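Proteins fold reproducibly. Take a tokenised chain:

. . .
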Amino acid sequence: MHFALLDKVHPRLAETLVQAGHRCTALHDLGDAELAAALHDVDGLVVRSRPLRADLLAHAPKLRVVGRVGSGTENIDKVWCLKHGVQVINSPEGNRDGVGETCVMLLLALMKALVRTNAQVHQGLWLREANRGTDLHGKTVGIIGYGHMGSAFAEKLRGFGVRILAHDKYRSGFDKAGINECALERVLRESDVISLHLPLNEETRHYANAEFFRALGRPVWFLNTSRGGVVHTEALLNALDQGRVIAAGLDVLEFEREDLSGLDPALEPHVQQRLMLHDRVLLSPHVAGVTHEGQVKMAEVLAHKILEHIRHAEP
């Protein structure tokens, strides 16, 4: 099979496919017009964040598989792929550790006011009582979406002495020692911490909206390392100002460009400005799963999953 790599990915992926007898061509430097002309003999595509819309995919008549290095697949027109018998494969297993660890980092940084105290000490201030922290031990952590990322966060919380409530609309049977599988209403009512681990689709867009925050049973620390669009940013900011949310750690934002290259200043600039100025919001640039180890693991996992799919698809 001929695979086209449309984003820069770790070389381990191409090496693994080539060793198995396939051919790989790097096309990540081509614009859409040039790329369309180069897809006529391609059997497989590999992307990270490049958008794959129907009008581009239609130029690949031999296409059999699309591989996404990472977790989310919202940049791929899955309706077109399903209609044309093209398998979409991703590799969330590869960066789950990075995401789980980032969630712990964000949560502890928020609860201990790490960013604020670091800035103060660098400015020569030594404000101990004003920066009295909160312990994670004894708290209830609510995890919404218990797939690879949500379960990774739960694993990293072992040893912190927390109770974990987990909700997943499409998964069940994960109730075990330390993990309480429950309805969303209970997560919102009883949690001290809420962390979102949801894919972005029409069902989950603005999942955390004004109604969501009104349903909270107590003030919470709020985390989102999944996709920015699952949170209605203005509703979150209102919840912060109303005291429903104590502080928020966001690795992803609603206003990210489609290719994840930064923020789009044209999208609700007044809300963006309000977000950037909020002193109880901790931000990072969509890097929860972007680690050196994760880069290799995602490439290896995706390559092996693609090869396994090819083996099963062969007559």
Observations:
- The chain has a mean pLDDT of 96.
- The longest strand covers residues 245-250.
